[in-house]
Amino acid sequence: MREITYAEAIREALRQEMARDDSVFLIGEDVGTYGGAFGVSYGLIDEFGEERVRDTPISEAGIMGAATGAALIGMRPVAEIMFMDFTTIAMDQLVNQAAKLRFMFGGKAKVPLVLRTPAGSGTGAAAHHSQSFEAWFIHVPGLKVVMPSTPYDVKGLLLASIRDDNPVVFVEHKLLYKTRGPVPEEEYTIPLGVADVKRPGKDVTIVATSIMVPRALEAAEALAEEGIDAEVVDPRTLKPFDGETVVTSVMKTGKVLIVHEACKTGGVGAEIASRIMESEAFDYLEAPITRLAGLDIPVPYNRTLERHRVPQVENIVAAVKDLLV
Amino acid sequence: MELQRDLCVDMLSQMYKIRFFEQTVDDLFARGLVHGTMHLSIGQEASAVGSISALRVEDYILSTHRGHGHCIAKGADIKLMMAEFMGKETGYCRGRGGSMHIADIEGRNLGANGVVGGGIPLAVGVGLSLKMQGRDEIVMGFFGDGAANQGSFHEALNMAAIWSLPVVYVCENNQYGMSMSTRRAFKIEKMAQRAASYGMPGVTVDGNDVVEVYEAASEAVERARAGEGPTLLECITYRWKGHSKSDQELYRTKDEIESWKNKEPIRRFLELLITQRVISEDEARKIEEEARRTIGEALEYARASPEPEVDTILEGVYA
Question: Is A283 near chain B, with CB under 8 Å?
Answer without folding.
Answer: no
